[in-house]
Specification:
ten-stranded mixed beta sheet; about 425 residues; two-stranded antiparallel ribbon; globular; alpha/beta; about 35% helix; TIM Barrel
Length: about 425
C-alpha cells in the first residue's frame, strides 16, 4: 500500500497517524516471520547434545533490550519504576561491555567515574548473543536453558523480542558447539492458560523446527522441554491439574509430544512444605515428568549452609528420584542481590565471597551424587546471579551497584567451567577454591 501525504489536505494528519500506528506493527510482524524459520547456518560439533548427564547448563534470560536496538521496547528490563536513569534501575550488577563492538553498545543516562556515558548491551543484538555463546565455549560451559516467559510471548511485542533472542541463541549454540533447550517460565500466568504454552510450542516446532535443530538438547532420546513454576506456595493462579494435563500432552501428543519434560519446582517439593503447596498432586505431576530441578536461589546464604542443605535435603531428593527413575538437576547460584529493585533490601544480600559460595555448592552437589547442574544464571543482573562478564567500575551517582570484588570480569565464567570439570570427574574433588594459573 502506498500513502501520499504531500499537500495541505485535511486527511493527511489522520493518514499519518494511521501509518504511525500500523507500520511499526507490520515491521514487527515481518521481523517475527524472519526468525520463525528452520536454522540453516553452520553447525560445529562440540558438546554431546544427546544427554543432560555431566552437563552444566546456564539459565539464559535474554530479556534485556535497549533504546536504539530496533526492538521498540526501550530499556526493557534495565529500567526501574521511573525509567532507566540514575536512581531508577532494576539491576544490581553492571555488565562489562569493554569487549563489545561499537554496534553492540548502547549509551545510557548513567555516568562513569571519568564522566563518560555508561553503556549496556541488548540481547536483541545477534552479535552479542553470539558472543555470549562463544564465552560459554571458551570457558567450558555446556549450554543454556533459554527462558521463554509465557506472559511475554502471549503478546506481539514480547513474542517478537523473545523469539528473536531464541533464534540468536540457536545460532550461537550451533556456531560454538554448545547446546540449548527451551524453558517456559509460567510466572504470572493466569488460570486456564496452558493453551498458551501449547500454542507457542506448536509454533516453535512447526515454524522453527526447533526439536530437529542439531544443537537442541536431547535426553533419553527425546528433545528436552522445561516447565518452570508449578507447585509454588505463593498464590499462583494456574493449578497442578493443569500441569498434569500439559505434561501428558507434551509426552503423548503424536505431533508435538515425545518430549523429555523437566520441571522447575519449589525447593521443598519432596516434603510438600515451606515454599511448596501441600498437595499430593505435586508428586503426581513430578512422576509424569522426567527431570526434577528444585529452585534453591536464596534458600541459603553461606558456604556452610549450602553444604548442610545438600547433605540434608539434596541427598534425600536424589534418593527419591533414583527410586522412581527420575533425573535430578540441582540449581546453584553465585550470590544474590536485588537492592535496586527493592531499595529496602540490602545491596549484596547473599555475598559471593570471591566465588567460595558458588564453589561450595558445586562441591556439595558432587558429594551428594548429582551428575548434572543448572547454573543460575548466565545474564541475570537484576537479582545479581549473573556469571557473565560484569565490571568492577560501574556507574557512579544515585544508584549503587555491586562489583566482582576486584576479580577479573570473567572470573565466574572461568569458575563455572572449572566446576563443570569437577562435576564430570575431570579434576580432583576439593573444597578449596581452585587457583587460576
Amino acid at each position: 500500500m502506498m500513502i501520499h501525504l504531500s499537500g495541505p489536505r485535511p486527511w493527511a494528519a489522520a493518514l499519518a497517524a494511521l501509518a504511525a500506528s500500523v507500520l511499526p506493527g507490520l515491521a514487527a510482524a515481518a521481523d517475527l516471520e524472519a526468525v520463525l524459520t528452520p536454522y540453516t547456518g553452520p553447525t560445529v560439533r562440540g558438546v554431546d547434545t544427546t544427554t543432560l548427564a555431566g552437563k552444566v547448563m546456564c539459565g539464559y534470560q535474554g530479556w534485556h533490550a535497549a533504546e536504539g536496538d530496533d526492538c521498540g521496547r526501550g530499556w526493557y528490563h534495565w529500567q526501574g519504576n521511573d525509567g532507566f536513569k540514575p536512581g531508577s534501575c532494576k539491576i544490581d550488577l553492571w555488565p562489562d561491555v569493554s569487549e563489545l563492538d561499537a554496534d553492540e553498545r548502547y549509551a545510557t543516562p548513567f555516568v562513569l567515574a571519568d564522566g563518560k556515558a555508561a553503556e549496556v548491551y541488548s540481547a536483541v543484538n545477534a552479535k552479542t548473543v553470539d558472543r555470549h555463546f562463544r564465552w560459554m565455549q571458551e570457558y567450558g560451559i555446556d549450554g543454556a536453558f533459554v527462558q521463554r516467559f509465557v506472559g511475554e510471548v502471549s503478546h506481539p511485542a514480547g513474542r517478537r523480542q523473545f523469539t528473536t533472542v531464541l533464534s540468536h541463541c540457536r545460532a550461537g549454540a550451533n556456531r560454538h558447539g554448545r547446546t540449548y533447550a527451551v524453558m517456559y517460565d509460567l510466572s504470572g500466568l493466569g488460570a486456564a492458560a496452558m493453551d498458551k504454552v501449547k500454542d507457542d510450542w506448536r509454533m516453535l516446532v512447526d515454524r522453527m523446527q526447533i526439536t530437529r535443530d542439531p544443537a537442541y538438547l536431547h535426553h533419553g532420546g527425546k528433545p528436552v522441554l522445561a516447565l518452570w513454576g508449578f507447585g509454588f506456595s505463593d498464590g499462583r493462579k494456574y493449578t497442578l491439574a493443569e500441569g498434569i494435563e500439559l505434561v501428558r500432552w507434551l509426552k503423548a501428543d503424536p505431533v508435538y509430544g515425545g518430549c523429555t519434560v523437566m520441571l522447575g519446582v519449589p525447593t521443598y517439593w519432596r516434603t510438600l512444605d515451606r515454599d511448596c503447596v501441600k498437595d499430593p498432586a505435586m508428586h503426581e505431576l513430578i512422576l509424569l515428568a522426567d527431570v526434577v530441578s528444585p529452585w534453591t536461589v536464596g534458600r541459603f546464604g553461606t558456604p556452610e549452609q549450602a553444604t548442610a542443605f545438600a547433605a540434608k535435603v539434596m541427598a534425600a531428593d536424589l534418593a527419591w528420584c533414583r527410586e522412581r527413575g527420575k533425573d535430578y538437576l540441582p540449581v546453584v547460584f553465585p550470590g544474590f542481590s536485588w537492592h535496586n529493585m527493592f531499595p529496602d533490601k540490602p545491596l549484596g544480600q547473599i555475598p559471593r565471597l570471591g566465588g567460595r559460595f558458588l564453589w561450595a555448592q558445586y562441591v556439595a552437589a558432587k558429594q551428594a551424587g548429582a551428575t548434572m547442574v543448572y547454573q543460575a544464571m548466565f545474564d541475570e543482573v537484576d537479582e545479581a546471579t549473573a556469571i557473565y562478564k560484569c565490571t568492577n567500575a560501574p556507574p557512579v551517582g544515585a544508584s549503587t551497584f555491586l562489583t566482582y570484588e576486584g576479580l577479573p570480569s570473567d572470573h565466574y565464567l572461568w569458575l563455572v567451567g572449572q566446576a563443570a570439570r569437577l562435576l564430570r570427574g575431570e579434576m580432583p574433588l576439593t573444597e578449596a577454591l581452585p587457583v587460576r594459573r
